[in-house]
Specification:
Layout lengths: L1 H14 L7 E2 L6 E2 L6 H10 L3 E5 L6 E6 L19 H4 E2 L2 E4 L4 H10 L4 E8 L7 E9 H15 L1
Parallel strand pairs: 2-3, 6-7
Antiparallel strand pairs: 1-8, 3-4, 4-5, 7-8
The structure holds adenosine-5'-diphosphate.
Adenosine-5'-diphosphate (ADP) binds next to strand 3, strand 8 and helix 5.
Protein name: Ancient conserved domain protein 2
Subcellular location: Membrane
Length: about 160
C-alpha cells in the first residue's frame, strides 16, 4: 500500500548515508581550471552532457569550485583564448563539501533549501603522527538521492 511505500522511502532517507549513493570521484567528469576554453573543450563538455562539472586546479584532488554548463553560453569564442581561471569570477561557483557519513535526509533538505544540486563528498583521513586531512571521494547530486528513494519504492512493489 501507499503508506508502506512512503514509510520505506522515509526510512531510507534516515538510514542511508551519501557514501552509499554517490558517484565515486574517479568516475566524475571534471575539468582543470587552467585549460583554455576553446572549441575542443566545449565539444567535450557538451558530449559528456552533464549540467554540473567540478573544477580542479592542477590535480584532480584539488577541487576549487563548480562550473554550470549553462553558464558557457556567456562565453564569446570570437574573443582571444582564455582559461576558466581568467573567467572564474563569472564561471566558477562554490561547491559544498559534505562528509561521506552524512545521512541522505539532511543533504536532501540542504539541496532543496539552497539553489545547489551538487556536493563534493569528503572523508576525514587520519594517519598516525601526521595531520588530519580531508579527501574528496565522490560527488553527490539531488538526482542520486531522489533515484535512491524511487528505487526503494520500485523494489517494494
Ligand atoms: P545532470 O543534471 O548533469 O544530468 P544529475 O544531477 O541529474 O546530472 O545526475 C545524474 C547522475 O550523474 C548522478 O548519478 C550524478 O552523480 C552523476 N553526475 C552528475 N554530474 C556528473 C559529473 N560531472 N561527472 C560524473 N557524474 C556526474
Amino acid at each position: 500500500p501507499q503508506e508502506r511505500k512512503i514509510l520505506s522511502a522515509v526510512l531510507e532517507l534516515k538510514s542511508k548515508v551519501i557514501g552509499q549513493v554517490m558517484t565515486p570521484i574517479d568516475k566524475a567528469f571534471m575539468i582543470d581550471i587552467n585549460v583554455n576554453l576553446n572549441q575542443l573543450l566545449l565539444k567535450q563538455i557538451y558530449s559528456e552532457g552533464y549540467s554540473r562539472i567540478p573544477v580542479y586546479d592542477g590535480q584532480r584532488e584539488n577541487i576549487v569550485g563548480l562550473l554550470m554548463t549553462r553558464d558557457l553560453v556567456l562565453i564569446n569564442l570570437e574573443n582571444s583564448i582564455v582559461t576558466i581561471k581568467q573567467l572564474s569570477s563569472i564561471l566558477l561557483r562554490d561547491i559544498i563539501a559534505i562528509d561521506v557519513e552524512t545521512k541522505l535526509e539532511p543533504v536532501l533538505s540542504y539541496f532543496k533549501g539552497n539553489s545547489t544540486h551538487m556536493g563534493l563528498v569528503t572523508r576525514k583521513h587520519k594517519v598516525i603522527g601526521s595531520e588530519l586531512s580531508i579527501m574528496n571521494i565522490g560527488i553527490i547530486t539531488l538526482e542520486d538521492i531522489v533515484e535512491e528513494i524511487l528505487q526503494e519504492e520500485i523494489e517494494d512493489e
